Amino acid sequence: MSALSTRARSARAALGAGLALFLLAGGVRGQALASRRVASGLVHPVCVTAPAGDAHRVFVVEQDGRVRIVRDGVLLPTPFLDLDAEVESAAREQGLLALAFHPQYATNGKYYVCFTDLAWSLVVREYVASATPSLDVDVSDNANARDVVVIPKPAPTHNGGCLQFGPDGMLYLSVGDGGGGYDTGPGHDPVMGNAQSLATRLGKLLRIDVDAGPPWDPGDNPWSDDADGIDDLIWARGLRNPWRFSFDAANGDLYLGDVGQNQWEELDWLPHAQGFGANFGWRCQEALHCTPYPGCICNVPRGTNPTLVDPVLEYEHVNGQCAVMGGVVYRGSAMPWLAGTYFYAEYCTHRIGTFQVVNGTVVNHVDRAAELEPEGADVLHFVAAFGVDGAGELLACDYYDGELYRIEAACVPPQAVCEGAPNSVGPGARLGWSGSASVARNDLVLNCTGLPPNSLGFFFYGSGRMHAPLGNGFLCVASEHWRLGAVAIAPDGTAEHAFDARAFPARVDPGETWLFQFYYRNVAGGGAGFNLSDALAVPFCD
Questions:
Q1: Burial profile 39-71: b = 16 or more Cβ within 10 angstroms, e = fewer
Q2: Which of 8, 125, 161, 301 could form a disulfide with 97 if both were Cys (CB 3.0 to 4.6 A apart)?
Q3: How many CA atoms lie within 13 A of 469 on its CB side?
Q4: Each residue of 396-410: pLDDT tens digit?
């Protein structure tokens, strides 16, 4: 390739500014998002998570009572944990609801699940996955288990049931008000409802020291060691059905989605360490709206009762909207432009929204539903939960379809650039592609058409762009470039090469844009006896 390399070197200096603009434009386009299905065959997935540092596995909670492992995109046949016989999942809000790994899981093997038992009680149970803990246990040892919390409930609904370890190392549990409209009826405090009453764990956010052992009191909860009968584990109150909450991994801020009653959905935010004794307002308020119950104090208009925590975002039950699915703040490394962005879903309308909180105010609120609709026949509907893998990258559970999706930077399709020249058989060779520009999928296939049959050629690539005469055509790759091996042109004038993005010297990284071209012998074309196709610009992504 000496002739090609000489031409490329001579054009580098003049091309510098243009190449910079070309790559910048590619980077901006790459900031769009996409969803990619990574597993199917799940049964009502409601939670996805992974131990910190696990590079190969994610753990998916199936509502019927199993925890499944997806290893490198393959759903393992044997569950990590099977509690089907102990879990009541007959009602839509019951079942195995959550999973959380101890911060020291790699050394102590401890993890925690939350489920509704056959008596409708909400149970948090501790397991030790293996007597010899490691990050590679695919089937849990169930012998060493103990119940941490058991909360009797009057109804099958409004369980909450989310588990998260906070930045303080404590285990937090969200608990619904017990069921029943407006927190009323049998099993509900007749004066103020369960959510406002400090005599019950229902309608609360609990904070648990799993390392302390029974009674699990951290000792610094708002009512720890109180002599007035208030439960020591209560951290915050005033919740209706807090299906999902999470902590921002960067600063510890709390984000919580509380499913509303008849008209309003709410998303709450509290800065790190300000949840101590917080009151989210239910049943006195549904989001920012007072309820009709006497004896309640509202914060409407805002600021009239600052002891209540107002949501940072609310939306009404219009156009089919019905239930907010709280999500997570993105803090992964693959999409740095999304740092601090919170993802949530609207269950009934399939909407996925994102926003950031700046100085207590929602900014950059974006509807991502159309952007995240998968390609082809797949659909990402009925998102029941978001989670992150061991590296902090974002995942979403499709409840009814039983699928797991990864949310990632969209791959911008490769584009034809740099017009080629005619050859002996027609208007010129054209470079095409199939598969994708995803480095993770590594399925890009280059193809070239309009070639002289039964000849020879090769694909080559580099990072720069130009349009300079060479042979009977034009050289489009301005930088140093690499050839991908000789290819025999088929009788129909086509050539193909499966590009391995991970192989030397072809290795590329997400975020890089490379140009591909095809060199081919064309003796019948006269002149130099060889020609070049047009070029294909490929912006590689994750």
A1: beebebbbbbbbbbebeebbbbbbbebbbbbbe
A2: 161
A3: 3
A4: 999 999 999 999 988
CA quadruple 181, 183, 189, 193: dihedral, nearest 10: -140
User: Is 136 buried (19+), middle (13-18) or exposed (0-12) by CB count in 10 A?
Assistant: exposed
Torsion angle of C-alpha atoms 127, 131, 134, 135, degrees rounded to 10: -30
**Rounded Cα–Cα distance for residues 295 and 297 (Å):** 7
Q: CATH code for 31-409? A: 2.120.10.30
> Are 177 and 193 within 8 A, CB to CB?
yes
Alpha-carbon distances of 505 from 419, 465, 482, 483, 485, rounded to whole Å? 26, 19, 7, 9, 11
pLDDT interval class at 31 (50, 70, 90): low
Domain boundaries, the chain: 2-28+412-539, 31-409
Q: What is the CATH number of domain 2-28+412-539?
A: 2.60.40.10
Identity at 453, one-letter amino acid code: P
pLDDT the model gives residue 504: 75
* Tokens standing for residue 405: 């999706």
Burial bucket for residue 535 (CB in 10 Å: 0-12, 13-18, 19+): buried
